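This section describes the prediction task in plain terms. A model, or a person checking by hand, is given the sequence of a single protein chain and must write out its three-dimensional structure as a string of tokens. No templates, partner chains or ligands are provided. The sample shown here is typical of the held-out split.
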Amino acid sequence: MNYKVVEIFDSINGEGPLAGRLSTFVRFTSCNLRCHYCDTRYAYDHPQYTLMSLAEILTRIEEASLDLVTLTGGEPLAAPHVAVLIEKLGEMGKHVEIETNGSIDIAPFHRLAHRPSFTLDYKLPGSGMSAFMKTENYQYLKDGDIVKFVCGAKDDLEEALRIIRIYHLNEEDCYFSAVFNQLAPRDIVDFLLAHKLKAKVQLQLHKYIWDPMKRGV
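The expected answer:
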């Protein structure tokens, strides 16, 4: 049981209600989407990775002695045996957060004995990947889960509002961020004010890279 790991590092969480907390990050290789603004292409574009056993990953995390573990990518839910890793981390007393792109069914992970929390992206039209979103996931959201909207234009803001209303998302669990040099955080603030939304703005910026790459692994 091996995992393709691009990197493991300790840092502060940058997203959602856990922002600012120390976390051990495990980044897996490969992704099934190709967002125009992706800032971690090194995880899937000719990636350099280490093939690590479950025991090796758990040892590295135990050595860090941090309570929070963030699984990211790439797309962590597409990594083989990731459910086994989540359960083992739960048995160690770790809180596991999953940063997932919104195209993978979270139902199997929702049913785990040690259910993780989810930072669930909704890819807006500016990403080029909105056709692949799995909105069925919203029925599994619980306290501690969030939906993230990365916005590159005012049309993206309007689409995010439409999604929030159609699927009756809890506004306080929705987070907006801007694509760098495409939309100013102030534009998001003005939009939230105009619609009296209780969503939150996070200042994490995503760099826009125009590249007509096709979706693939």
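For orientation: The mean pLDDT is 90.
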